[in-house]
């Protein structure tokens, strides 16, 4: 049964037992202290009474008479009544009583210790006499020569002292009850708070939950980042460390101060998202070599008791999914679509040419048909031979031929200039398709949106130091103020659709140049936009990829 108790109940019971034990100890200590103080107070009061009697000349005078009791007994009774003493015994040095509260005891020996008093010392003791246990003080009565002529004993019974102690018991009991009530209330409030925080779970359940939590965070294939309200990274799992390029961290909170967001090498867009704490659903963010889908929600604690308090917000929880492979497959699919469109365009053009040749032959103009077919074959073969001879990468050749056919279909002219094409062998095919395919698509869109003549120029120059790609178009160019924005994921300069504002991309827009930038960055190259250097009057994109071992590492 105890194993099912929550932490709050266990802590309440433990604190209650502790408060009970503490109350018992404190109450006992207070009672003992009160009793000791009562005995000390009684001893000091009796010492003052006995000393006052011993200093009275009447005692010394009566001690020299044959019947001291005749003068001292009435005096002792008066002092007993005024000093609230239970007994005052004046005796001879040989213990013979001259006075006593009980007249029958006069003349009998005193019961108790008198040796220190016979040596001139005053002392207090607790001993039993004819009236029972009592607190008494014995003071010597000395003459002018210092000889002890009599002894004075003044005392109160223990019963009387206990009555005084009992008078203090209500205060002690009240203090003990106040401690018990205060401690119980504090335990109840603490238990109430813990019950709301731990949701009524016991330590075994919390230990099991943490074991599951740790196992999930280590094994899940999504990155998880926990950020508190102060901008500190409380925890991130192994997958998050891999996706963000961070050092691996334990699931358990590390000792010391957690790192701040500003201390981690995060991309600006991710840093801005994490720092804002806003809710995000399936947002795309690009890192150096990855495309990440990020979701972020606030970490909200349990609701307050009876709805009186708003739930506490402890920070934010961000999850990261790697979309790089999906985008890579999308790029390959886009390449296949480009080749398919090129084949469709070529099929369309080929059908038109065949119709022309057939019509000429039906008109009996066989020589014109042969001449038309020969010239068309020469033009097509010239472009094919030029690309095959200049570019040693078949996928890139197919891509350029497809874009050439697409440009022809859209009323534009694509000119290709290749110098030293052997340097393309070290580049990954996927990166070539991503870089050139997106740059040519944007250039064709820009040229098609501008008035004639619509032209696009592609330059490929390879050498020992690397490969340079240049793509120029005859479009309207790019505003210098937004040059840095066009590389951002989701930003597009193309015409906005219904319900969209300028600069806001449709779901399929604002992606190409961001992927180009990522691919160039992955290959260690540089990317720039220039309008002043474009002979066609539009934008000029220049990509420079260095040669060396970096390509092999990127692959």
UniProtKB/TrEMBL annotation:
* Name of the protein this chain belongs to: histidine kinase
Say which enzyme class the record assigns.
Answer: transferase
Query: Which SUPFAM superfamilies does the entry link to?
Result: ATPase domain of HSP90 chaperone/DNA topoisomerase II/histidine kinase, PYP-like sensor domain (PAS domain), Sensory domain-like, Sporulation response regulatory protein Spo0B
State the PANTHER family in the record. Answer: SENSOR PROTEIN CREC
Native species of this protein? Arthrobacter methylotrophus
Do you know which InterPro entries this protein is assigned to? 2C_sensor_his_kinase, HATPase_C_sf, HATPase_dom, His_kinase_dom, PAS, PAS-like_dom_sf, sCache_3, Sensor-like_sf
Q: Does the keyword NADP apply?
A: no
Keywords (alphabetical) are:
ATP-binding, Cell membrane, Kinase, Membrane, Nucleotide-binding, Phosphoprotein, Transferase, Transmembrane, Transmembrane helix, Two-component regulatory system
Membrane-spanning parts: 169-190
Q: Which domain of life is it from?
A: Bacteria
Topology relative to the membrane = Multi-pass membrane protein
Q: Which GO molecular-function terms appear in the entry?
A: ATP binding
């Amino acid at each position: 049964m105890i194993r099912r108790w929550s932490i709050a109940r266990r802590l309440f019971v433990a604190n209650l037992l502790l408060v009970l034990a503490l109350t018992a100890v404190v109450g006992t200590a207070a009672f003992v202290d009160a009793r000791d103080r009562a005995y000390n107070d009684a001893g000091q009061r009796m010492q003052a009474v006995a000393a006052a009697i011993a200093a009275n000349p009447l005692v010394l005078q009566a001690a020299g008479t044959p019947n001291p009791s005749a003068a001292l007994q009435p005096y002792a009774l008066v002092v007993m009544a005024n000093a609230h003493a239970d007994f005052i015994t004046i005796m001879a040095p040989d213990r013979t009583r001259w006075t006593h509260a009980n007249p029958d005891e006069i003349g009998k020996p005193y019961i108790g210790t008198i040796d220190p008093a016979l040596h001139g010392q005053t002392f207090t003791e607790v001993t039993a006499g004819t009236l029972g246990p009592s607190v008494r003080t014995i003071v010597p009565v000395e003459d002018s020569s210092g000889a002890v002529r009599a002894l004075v004993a003044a005392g109160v019974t223990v019963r009387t002292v206990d009555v005084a102690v009992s008078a203090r018991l209500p205060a002690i009991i009240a203090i003990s009850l106040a401690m018990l009530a205060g401690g119980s209330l504090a335990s109840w409030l603490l238990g109430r708070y813990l019950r709301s925080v731990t949701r009524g779970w016991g330590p075994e359940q919390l230990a099991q939950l943490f074991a599951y939590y740790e196992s999930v965070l280590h094994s899940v294939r999504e990155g998880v980042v926990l950020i508190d309200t102060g901008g500190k990274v409380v925890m991130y799992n192994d997958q998050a460390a891999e996706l963000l390029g961070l050092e691996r961290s334990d699931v358990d909170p590390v000792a010391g101060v957690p790192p701040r967001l500003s201390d981690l090498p995060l991309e600006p867009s991710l840093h801005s998202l994490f720092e804002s704490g806003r809710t995000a659903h399936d947002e795309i963010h690009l890192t150096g070599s990855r495309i990440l889908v990020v979701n972020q929600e606030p970490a909200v604690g349990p609701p307050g008791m009876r709805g009186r308090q708003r739930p506490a917000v402890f920070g934010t929880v961000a999850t990261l999914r790697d979309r790089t492979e999906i985008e890579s497959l999308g790029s390959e699919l886009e390449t296949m679509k480009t080749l398919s469109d090129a084949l469709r365009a070529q099929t369309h053009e080929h059908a038109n040419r065949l119709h022309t040749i057939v019509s000429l032959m039906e008109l009996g103009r066989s020589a014109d048909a042969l001449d038309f077919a020969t010239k068309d074959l020469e033009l097509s073969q010239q472009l094919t031979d030029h690309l095959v001879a200049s570019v040693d990468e078949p996928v890139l050749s197919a891509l350029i031929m497809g874009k050439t056919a697409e440009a022809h279909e859209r009323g534009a002219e694509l000119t290709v200039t290749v110098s030293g094409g052997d340097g393309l062998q070290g580049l990954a095919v996927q990166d070539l398709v991503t870089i050139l395919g997106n740059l040519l698509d944007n250039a064709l869109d820009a040229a098609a949106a501008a008035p004639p003549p619509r032209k696009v120029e592609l330059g490929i120059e390879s050498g020992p130091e690397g490969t340079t790609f240049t793509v120029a178009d005859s479009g309207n160019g790019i505003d210098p103020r937004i040059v840095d924005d066009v590389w951002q994921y989701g930003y597009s300069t193309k015409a906005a659709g219904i319900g969209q504002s300028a600069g806001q991309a449709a779901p399929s827009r604002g992606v190409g140049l961001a992927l180009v930038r990522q691919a160039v960055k992955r290959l260690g190259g540089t990317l720039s936009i220039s309008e002043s250097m474009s002979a066609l009057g539009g934008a000029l994109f220049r990509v420079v990829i260095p040669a060396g071992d970096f390509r092999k590492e990127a692959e």
